[in-house]
Structures are given as structure tokens and as C-alpha cells.
Specification:
alpha/beta; Rossmann fold; seven-stranded parallel β-sheet; about 15% strand
């Protein structure tokens, strides 16, 4: 059996304090990577990161701030540069705001685009510069099933996640000659805080449409991220990998 070993490699994971981001960060740490963690400052984020720092001493750095802020992107790359390399970038930070058409404020539109796609582009640009020095790297963007098929009440969120897919395709073509791979993961219904607000009846209906018969776990997505971060996917780029239990088959 092939064992993934990322010892000596450096990763950045945004939105890493909980859910998919936290699972991805821990998965990378377990196989030896050094990880720069990011989240907006909060007691929850501080506690989450302190836990990882204790479990993986000397391999965890925390950078607090919104990815919508250019200063956060700069601070993340500066932290990676202390290790003189960047091998993996997981663009996971994102926000979800459900609103029906006609009820969406300008502030909500701006927030979702700033965090879900504009921040991703800012960090990707800086990361690509550092990765290009070694002519190697893997960038993993977190999209969503709704970026591929849409969803009622999520016009803006779906638009930002569709934009992530477009950005992934373009970056993969541009960065491929430098041996920098760019892929996206499109989770379906995953057990995280984002789905807690879904009413029981609606959730049961969604679950009934999943051929594999269960809601996904954050670890299911983290395992796919780990594959894309590793040499097992060395010839995989420009792909959108659904982690949805067959929901859109």
C-alpha cells in the first residue's frame, strides 16, 4: 500500500479552524507537513489552533484575519517564506448566506464575493510566485456542488462557487507549465456547521437523493484534499472532483 508522506513540505490552509478546513489541516499534519493555519480571529479559532500546535509542535503557525483583506494574504505567504518554500495551498475559507432573490443586500453580495473568490485569487497569485521558484506545487480550491448545479436561495453563494471553478480551470492552464497543479473539490451535503440551519424536512429530502445513503463527513473531503496535495495526483490538474456521495450522477 502506498503511504502518503509529506514530511518537509509546507502548506497553507485558509478557513482552518473548523469543518473541512480543520479536517484538511489535521490530515496534512498527520502525514508530516508543516502547516500555516488561517481563520478570522475568535476564541473558537484560537482554541482550535492551540490544540493543533500542542499535538504537532514546531509544525503549526497561525495567521489570523479575513482572506478578503490583502494584508492577510501577505502575512500567510510571509509565514510560508520562513520555511523557504510553499508546496500546498488549500483555499478553503468561505461564507454561506442563504437569501431569496429580491432580499439580498449589497453588503451580502460584496461579503460573499470578497471572501469566497476575490480572497482566493489574491492568495493564489502570491502562492504561485513562491511555488514557481521550485517549479512545483499543488493548489486545491474548495468549490461546492451548488457551483455546478445551483440551488434555490443561494444565487450569490452559487455564483461565487461557480467562479471558483472557472478560476481553477484558468489557473491550471496558466500554471501547468511550471508544474503547479490546480484542482478543485466540490463537496455535496457535508456534516459541518454550514448545514445546521437546514430545516429537518428539507434535510431529509436532500439525504434521500444521495445514492450512497449518507451525509458526508469533513474527513471525506479532507481525504480527497490529501490525495490532491500528494504525489499520488502528480498528473492531475484542472479537475473538479465531486465529494457528494453520487448526488449529481
Amino acid at each position: 500500500m502506498t503511504v502518503i508522506d509529506l514530511s518537509g513540505r509546507v502548506a497553507i490552509v485558509t478557513g482552518a479552524s473548523r469543518g473541512i478546513g480543520r479536517a484538511a489541516a489535521e490530515a496534512l499534519l498527520k502525514v508530516g507537513a508543516t502547516v500555516v493555519l488561517n481563520a478570522r480571529a475568535s476564541d473558537e479559532a484560537s482554541a482550535s489552533f492551540a490544540e493543533l500546535e500542542k499535538a504537532y509542535p514546531d509544525r503549526v503557525t497561525a495567521v489570523y484575519g479575513s482572506v478578503a483583506d490583502s494584508a492577510t494574504a501577505t502575512a500567510l505567504l510571509q509565514s510560508a517564506m520562513k520555511h523557504k518554500r510553499l508546496d500546498i495551498l488549500v483555499n478553503n475559507a468561505g461564507v454561506l448566506r442563504d437569501k431569496l432573490i429580491g432580499m439580498i443586500s449589497d453588503a451580502e453580495i460584496n461579503e460573499l464575493f470578497d471572501i469566497n473568490i476575490i480572497g482566493l485569487i489574491k492568495i493564489t497569485q502570491l502562492a504561485a510566485r513562491l511555488m514557481s521558484r521550485r517549479k512545483s506545487g499543488s493548489i486545491i480550491n474548495i468549490s461546492s456542488i451548488v457551483g455546478r448545479r445551483g440551488n434555490s436561495g443561494q444565487m450569490v453563494y452559487s455564483a461565487t462557487k461557480a467562479a471558483v471553478i472557472g478560476a481553477t480551470f484558468s489557473a491550471a492552464k496558466e500554471l501547468g507549465p511550471m508544474n503547479i497543479r490546480v484542482n478543485a473539490v466540490a463537496p455535496g451535503l457535508i456534516q459541518t456547521s454550514m448545514i445546521e440551519a437546514i430545516p429537518g424536512d428539507k434535510r431529509k429530502n436532500l439525504e434521500s437523493q444521495i445514492p450512497m445513503g449518507r451525509v458526508g463527513a469533513a474527513q471525506d473531503v479532507a481525504d480527497t484534499i490529501l490525495f490532491l496535495a500528494s504525489d499520488l495526483s502528480s498528473y492531475v490538474t484542472g479537475q473538479i472532483i465531486g465529494v457528494d456521495g453520487g448526488l449529481i450522477v
